Automatic annotation (TrEMBL):
Leader peptide range in chain numbering: 1-20
InterPro entries, sorted: Dockerin_dom_sf, EF_Hand_1_Ca_BS, EF_hand_dom
EF-hand domain segment(s): 112-147
UniProt GO MF annotations: calcium ion binding
The organism's taxonomic lineage, starting at the top: Bacteria, Thermotogati, Deinococcota, Deinococci, Deinococcales
Statement: the UniProt record of this protein carries the keyword Signal: yes
Highest taxon of the lineage: Bacteria
PROSITE patterns assigned to the protein according to its UniProt record, in alphabetical order: EF_HAND_1, EF_HAND_2
Name of protein: EF-hand domain-containing protein
Length: 173
């Protein structure tokens, strides 16, 4: 099975199969890298591993060029074609909590749980509402037999039986 790449509205790139996801983020520095890895480990399970790929995606930094308001834990913005997330080293949250809060917001998770991450990051949540439901199935079926990225869960360039099988593994009544 080929890997797939999804582009979420926040320019977060994910790649993987329905049972695993690789998150593309570029944390700068050891402290921030460890905080991101710990946050991802909290979402991971043996059947749904969430791993970090530092070869692309948004840049995460501790601190920034402009001063932070003391009550702000993080801020995110685009610079040209790059996306940046800056964490306030003296903010109201410790770094681990700030990373979880900001990634929850970036990925539009309902909360920082494996269930929420699986629903949002598995690729089967085709409309991005945080649920895998009949609306997503309708989108998949509307694109069945077409060469499109909407519903192409296995990354082979078309929506077919393999994608329907991957979707059904994620869909729960």
């Amino acid at each position: 099975m080929r890997a797939r790449t999804l582009l979420l509205p926040a320019l977060l790139t994910l790649a993987g199969t329905a049972g695993a996801v690789t998150v593309k983020l570029r944390p700068q520095g050891e402290e921030l890298t460890k905080a991101v890895q710990a946050a991802l480990a909290a979402l991971s399970t043996p059947d749904f591993p969430v791993t970090l790929d530092t070869s692309g995606g948004p840049i995460l930094t501790l601190g920034g060029a402009a001063p932070f308001s003391p009550d702000v834990a993080a801020r995110s913005f685009g610079v040209g074609t790059e996306r940046r997330i800056e964490f306030n080293p003296r903010g109201p949250l410790n770094l681990q909590d700030a990373v979880r809060a900001e990634l929850t917001r970036e990925w539009k998770l309902t909360d920082w749980t494996t269930a929420s991450a699986r629903a949002r990051l598995s690729g089967a949540d085709l409309n991005g509402d945080g649920k895998i439901d009949l609306t997503d199935l309708a989108l998949l079926m509307n694109n069945y037999g077409k060469s499109t990225s909407i519903g192409d869960l296995d990354g082979n360039g078309k929506v077919d039986d393999a994608d329907l099988k991957l979707f059904s593994a994620q869909y729960k009544l």
